[in-house]
Amino acid sequence: MQSAFCRFFALVFSLQAARAASVDTISIYSEAMHRSYKCVVIKPQAYSHGKKELFPVVYILHGYDGWYSNWLIRVPQLKDYADNLKMILVCPDGAKSSWYFDSPVDSSMRYETYIGKEVPEYIDSHYRSIKNRNGRAICGLSMGGHGALFLAFRHAETFGACASMSGVVNLASSHTKYDIVKRIGDTLTYADNWINYSIVNVVSHYPKDSLAIMIDCGVGDVFIAANRELHEKMLQLKIPHDYTERPGKHEWAYWRNWIQYQLLFFRNYFNTHLTP
To answer: Residue 164 forms beta bridges with which residues?
Structure first.
């Protein structure tokens, strides 16, 4: 009886596992930086059903002091979201403090090229992804929130939609923290970099290809003032975007809750812009 009982639950478990999203941990080589970096790729259950269906891709960036598996460890529900929304989720490594820049002061840091060009090229060549901007979106938290907007605005040919949660959207607000000085130089000698590399100024150069944009921040977040500044500037520039403030701080409890809304925002974008 006990053996049959165990076999029954083993069967139930195997059926549940068969319905779950699958997770690949891969290495993606960077020609720009001459080394490989790990990356998590979450494929929806539907990916295994056939060999022809193509899927939209959302790139999810981690924050300062994070790493490639940070999001999946903290939010294992990403696998459910990939299943339910039928999309591939890609979590690349942006190093502890790359800020997703091609650093103008450190030629070894080329993360704008890596995340904005090399990683999507790899995903498109190794997975059944939709290979145009209407099938790609990018989002992130904190450093990754700034990075997602920065990369989308500067590489709108690659990404059609972007979102930031709790983004450090004005670098000047953190000029003595988070290794930003190591990436773009000090505020005196390299003052122009603090203007040109901060998304609150980058938005003035809206790309010719329109972007679907979502920005959210907790009202108790240390970066709420900068996010409000960005929102007001985008209103002045008449840049369409969704902006939301909700109760919350700069913490995983907020990001864990809000990522599902950003993914739904992207799913609606894909539904609208992709030909059935």
So the answer is: 140, 215
